Amino acid sequence: MKSTIRQFARAWTIGVTGWILLACGCATEPERIDSVTLHQDALSFLKYASSYPDNPVVRAQAIESLHEVAPRQGVPLFREALSDAHDGVRFAACMVLGEMRHEASRKQLARAADAESRSVQAAALFALHRLGDTSRTTKLAELLLHDTDEATRANAALVIGQLGEEGTIKLLDRAAQHDRSPLVRMQALEGMVRLGDESAGDRLTLHAHGGAGQWQVTALLAVARSPLSNRIPLLESRLEHGEHLEIRLAAARGLGWNERDDGYELAVEALNYEPPSVVIPAVSEDDAINQMMRIRTMAAFALGAIGDERALPALREAMAAANDIRIRLAAARAILEILNHTNPPTLMAVDVPEG
After folding, report:
1. How many structural domains compose the chain?
2. What is the pTM of this model?
3. Residue range 331-351, pLDDT digits in tens
């Protein structure tokens, strides 16, 4: 599942590691990785991050990451997060439990559908719809088209897009064309392109080529996971000619989702990105520390999508030693993505009861 807390933390869009090149031109043997131990360490870190007290964005991102890479192991944490103090964390928990059609959480989700936060309501209605209760699904259209809060409308657009029903394209298109918020319009386009709408794909392609930096990243990632026929040429172009490093890393991640490793070297190098003495252009105008966090995080995400186990030593180091928990979390997720891709599923399986 794509990020469900964009409106709570939009800024978090949002040498060869493992080998040492010698002067003689030869390389050392690749470092041997204990896959089982590394898997356990990365999973433990994601579980820790899901209850990280100092930053709800970290908690929500950990929940989303666990859903992507270790959903059954994360179920108890998802259910616990339904009682989190922060709307964004509860939103993420409702969404992932809905994606899983987690029947044992039905009563908690029904209560969440009456939450004070209308964004949490939207996510809970999505989950109930996935569990077969469609009695209040039509409220999502009201939230999308008429709610006064930008974040609620954006979340409603996200939820409607995740329902996966072609009949919602016209509803989303209405928001994409008429909503005053660029965030809501973009989220509606993402939902439409997820459903294979070519007109939305054309509009996202324009954003990916010439929109504002953060919207280029968003558009690239949406197109990359769509069935659009032009996605590979677009990603190749943005990887080579992207105006900002973040855009090129988004293209690298998108290519990874499409079984391409074109951006591997770029992502490996960017995992250790240091701010230059002269400020370089970025997708967001923020300080060098936040830019470093964002680039390193995006590099880890790209390496996870590419799935090349050569990146594991560098990602393990980032998970253990990075000075920002968001970078460590991204590295842990990437490690699990790679191990899930390169190891038989039974090797890493840990069964968790449904209740």
Report:
1. 1
2. 0.85
3. 999 999 999 988 755 444 444
